Amino acid sequence: MTLRAFSSKALLAAFVLLLSGVASSAQTVDLWTVANVAVDATGASPSAAKEAALAQGRQKAWAEVFKRITPASEWARTPPMTDAELEPMIKSFDISGEKHSSTRYLATVTFVFNATSVRTALRRTGTQFSESTAKPVLVVALTGTAWSPESAWGRAWGVQARRGRLVPVAVPVGDLQDMTALATISSAADWPIVQALADRYGASAVLVASAAKGAGGLQVNMTQISPQGRAQRSGSFAPQGGEDELALATRAASSIADSLQEDWKRTTSVDYGQQSTLSVLVPFANLSEWVSIKRHLDTTRLIQKTAVEELNMTSARVRLDYVGKVDQLQTALSQTNLFLASDASGNWTLSRNAAATTAASPTAPVVP
Fold first, then answer.
1. Model confidence, pTM
2. What is the pLDDT of residue 364?
């Protein structure tokens, strides 16, 4: 299958997206925000029904955040949280679509959690979790053989691109530069063919996902292309209940996007009781590069403290106090193009030279 068969509708949709500035892949996603939580509860009074509905929503949102940052093996151990414990963990919430009577309240709520409170709660229960965000996977969603962002399948992936995940999903904007690159991509492509498009979105891999309606529902064929090679998989999704085409496509896309997370979460989930220190040499070409490296170190969640012990015009010696294992630290740093490696004598160096630390670079998340 190829992407040469662009429909006129796809071109028009891409042009509208470009003009409006609505580029799903460029949107900032947040691990701690859970949007569009449907709530429906009853109570003895309007205010009691509303309070019951919001409490219900907080529990749903907590379950979503917990699953985002923990591997599936931890889900059975979800710490039970009372509403009295959860309510202070919510930094803010936004309500839309309110409907109510004297005893019933319905709405859609977006909850924003306080990240520090979530971390504290999980550490208190000994739960291993990850905050290390991977480079995104760029999804090229085909309806049949054509990239069609206005189709149900294309719109479903646009929704996934706006959800907070440790392995973010990106989708093409659809401008002229994208169109040129997309026209050369097929399910048989290899990394040199897709690399320019992946690089544009900072992606570690490109997932070509083709969906077609069949008698049993939605049939999806996927090819994931990365520097490590190609992986193929197919799956089918039958409608559930009264799902329409968009609801079915959204559930299928969500399932596939979730499957990208598991290997990454297993690799990067950290035991916060395991703390270590590393002395690292950081060479740099100029002051601007050093400032950039230091900024990335300060924002890497595994690093609890960065202490500069020596500094000159070409290098720095820093002490990193971090949690987890050193290979997890290497993986987290590599997502910001910083590569940590040791020599035969056990001396550690941190640089932007990936070639010097090939072994430290993780593979892209793969659809299992």
1. 0.71
2. 56
